[in-house]
Predict the structure.
Amino acid sequence: MTYEITHKQRLELLEAHNNLKTALSNVAECQDLWLSDVGNLEKLQYSLHRIFKFVPKEDEDGRSMYWGAWVLSEDGNDE
């Protein structure tokens, strides 16, 4: 499957990349994590699952298992 990423999405991922870089730098240098870093990591996770269509697996009753490993939307629950 081929994805086309828009310029806007690339800029969003670039911002998320830079936020991740800053958070990792803070952890490495300060051995601490600021709450704003946690927010940026959550934003990165949201951007990744929205842009690349990652979805949570579902149990046999169709309920989302959001806490577990996610899968590609086109793969569904075939794993």
